[in-house]
Amino acid sequence: MALKQPREAPLIADSFYERIDEKTYVSTWSTAGPWGPKAQHAGPPSALLSTQMMNDHHRPDFHPARVTFELLGQIPVDDLTVRTSVEHSTHRTDLLSGTLLHHDRAVAIARMWRYKAAPSALDRVREPRLQQDGLAFDDSVAPSAPLVLAFDESVTPPVPLELTSHTDGYISAMEWRFAESEPFTTFGPGKAWVRPRIPLILGEPDTPFGRLMLIADSCWSIARRIDMMKHFAINTEITVHCHRLPESDWLRLDGTTVASPGGAAVSHATMGDRSDDCAFVLQSMFVA
């Protein structure tokens, strides 16, 4: 049974999940997405499944290079069971898979390519147009005013949560810092710093890759270019390509969305920490 939010409880639970046993977790109300209190945002379950895959099949000096998390429908705010396996393994690569189940019904599946870590002698290579000047966005990146979004620990702008349909779940459990004056409502490329206020699993330390996956699904939310008053749009998957693990709890999303009549929409973002980019996110989106 999922943990219910008491009438007088704070908006934020103590964690996104509480462990029942090695494979089963209680979902708290803080996993709920903007669609309502009964369906989870994809961030927590994708982080849970990715973390379980890596923990179940721990391999020192291997790096999680790519994860694709497939949503098979709504993920209920309820007890969830995780199953993982190794589909392919060599001395240099692993292909891991995982399934998230609700009452023995699969609600999400994932696959992870994991590689033996690249040698330390490898030259660092970055795409110049995506590079940041410290913590500010480069002038070559198409701006959404104001152009520069710098990290400032002394300021926490309030997020107008009333702009979303359900605010007592994931949105309140994360801390957001936006360049835009009206976050979640500004159309166009979006930029935000995001970090969780609570751990993924109660009493267990978060992992760098878990934090990355926890935030990745917010890509299209901060880079909204589809008028939701005219269209229904939702992603059915999250694909994260990670070239290095983040080194801080605050992570940056710099994203945008493209859409084509007669086709579909795609949201994509660069993710990074306080010093450098670390991953790329892609989300294919159904639009009606």
Question: What does this molecule look like?
Answer:
- It comes from Nocardiopsis rhodophaea.
- The chain has 288 residues and is mainly beta.
- It has one domain: Acyl-CoA thioesterase, double hotdog domain (Porin).
- It is built from 4 helices and 13 strands.
- The protein has helices at 43-56, 170-173, 208-216, 219-222, and strands spanning 17-19, 24-27, 62-71, 80-89, 93-102, 105-116, 174-178, 190-196, 233-235, 237-242, 251-259, 265-272, 277-287.
- The protein is globular and about 50 Å long.
- Residues 132-164 have low confidence and may be disordered.
Percent of sequence in beta strands: 25-35%
* Average pLDDT level: 83
Uncertain parts: 132-164
- Helix fraction? 10-25%
> What's the order of the H and E elements?
EEHEEEEHEEHHEEEEE
CATH architecture: Beta Barrel
CATH topology: Porin
Principal-axis shape: globular
Computed CA radius of gyration, to the nearest angstrom? 18 Å
**Structural class by sheet pairing and helices:** mainly beta
